[in-house]
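Researcher: Next entry in the queue.
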Amino acid sequence: MQLEILTPEHKVYSGTVYGIQLPGIEGSFEILDKHAPMIASLGKGKMKILKDKNTTELYEIASGFVEVLNNKATVLIEGATSME
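Model: Structure for this entry, 84 residues:
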């Protein structure tokens, strides 16, 4: 799955991933390869990029949106703080 994470200032991440875990406004959820099309609001919490089954990147985010379409997830957020 292709993943792009964007803030108004810069691109946080762009590349092929296994999946991503996101903090939805009503609880966290996960998007994996070949997920159905969707748009969801994001709340404050941890965003975990699953690069493969053993490698992850962790960020703290405040709010935003995610769109999944044609096996590409685009995450639009106000800002991201790396927790590595």
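Model: The mean pLDDT is 96.
Researcher: Noted, moving on.
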